[in-house]
């Protein structure tokens, strides 16, 4: 399962990459590469804080596995955070892993960076060594049986190794509640539509199992100890840098294209204006655009 990082409070719209049900299996993840990279780079301060938090307890790991790495932005941050570690980026998309390899080379970490192509969680059986740290950023929720997926991850951990999953958090926010046209509260109505899509996506996954998404409890059930959770904030207040604005444009354009049919006509018209570069009130031009997002990391340790 390729995973975007991201994507997006809603992982680059938690679900937008999922298409409808199985469609996301056939989605051209490589086509999304620029969006995935832009988002992950924008979210780098959040990821760096998450990795620093992990580094307090995970000292000098020999092998780090990024399961569902996408184009490898976080894999690269692991290489920088843990200069002694070997990194393996795992993803279903070979073109995204090529980008991950190129990034590792640019960072001077090419000699300790490997990739593994295949679908989670089965592909993890192909790892040569157990992992000291296995990281899964928004990749577990793409798998039908999340509990079984976590158990498969735990099997690939060395004794004393850590599994960290980034799941949950809060939907991203880019605009004030009242933007001066349309009905206030647009973000919340988009969230509701995304939530419905996410339910459908999960229901249609092969072997889908409904589960209480209490991640610490799921980690405990998979055999881990010392579970803990921490939420990390990305707070880019207005006026935002160009890269953040470009991300908001891209994100809302994708929302309009993917979800527009599910919104009422007024909200659709509002989105049309918001993404129209010729409209002075669009996110291309308005001064009040910001990016505020929160992602949660849950971790646990395999008993020695």
Tally of separate helices: 10
Cα-to-Cα separation, first versus last residue: 30 Å
| Class of secondary structure makeup | alpha/beta
Poorly predicted segments: 1-26
User: Helical percent range?
Assistant: 25-40%
User: Any idea what the shape is?
Assistant: globular
H and E string: HHHEHEHEEHEHHEHHE
Seen as an oligomer or otherwise, the chain set is single chain
Instruction: Please describe the biggest sheet, giving its number of strands, its sense, and whether it closes into a barrel.
Output: 7 strands, mixed
Strand order of the largest sheet: 3-2-1-4-5-7-6
Rg is 19 Å
What average pLDDT do the residues reach?
Answer: 90
User: What proportion of the residues form beta strands (DSSP E)?
Assistant: 15-25%
Instruction: Count the beta strands.
Output: 7
Identify the notable features of this structure and list them briefly.
304 residues, alpha/beta, disordered N terminus
């Amino acid at each position: 399962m390729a995973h975007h990082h991201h994507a997006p409070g809603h992982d680059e719209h938690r679900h937008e990459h999922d298409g409808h049900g199985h469609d996301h299996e056939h989605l051209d993840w490589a086509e999304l590469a620029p969006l995935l990279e832009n988002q992950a780079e924008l979210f780098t301060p959040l990821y760096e804080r998450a990795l620093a938090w992990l580094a307090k307890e995970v000292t000098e790991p020999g092998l780090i596995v990024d399961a569902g790495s996408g184009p490898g932005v976080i894999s690269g941050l692991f290489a920088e955070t843990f200069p002694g570690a070997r990194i393996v980026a795992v993803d279903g998309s070979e073109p995204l892993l090529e980008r991950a390899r190129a990034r590792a080379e640019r960072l001077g970490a090419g000699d300790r960076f490997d990739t593994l192509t295949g679908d989670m969680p089965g592909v993890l059986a192909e790892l040569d060594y157990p992992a000291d740290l296995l990281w899964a950023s928004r990749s577990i929720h793409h798998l039908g049986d999340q509990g079984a997926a976590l158990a498969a991850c735990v099997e690939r951990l060395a004794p004393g190794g850590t599994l960290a999953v980034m799941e949950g958090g809060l939907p991203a926010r880019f605009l004030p509640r009242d933007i001066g046209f349309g009905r206030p509260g647009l973000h919340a109505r988009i969230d509701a539509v995304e939530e419905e899509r996410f339910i459908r996506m999960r229901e249609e996954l092969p072997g889908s199992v409904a589960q209480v998404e209490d991640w610490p409890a799921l980690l405990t059930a998979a055999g881990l100890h010392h579970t803990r959770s921490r939420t990390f904030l990305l707070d880019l207040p207005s006026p935002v840098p160009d890269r953040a604005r470009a991300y908001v444009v891209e994100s809302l354009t994708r929302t309009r294209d993917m979800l527009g049919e599910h919104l009422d006509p007024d909200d659709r018209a509002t989105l049309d204006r918001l993404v129209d570069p010729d409209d002075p009130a669009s996110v291309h031009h308005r001064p009040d655009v910001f990016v505020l997002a929160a992602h949660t990391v849950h971790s646990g340790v395999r008993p020695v």
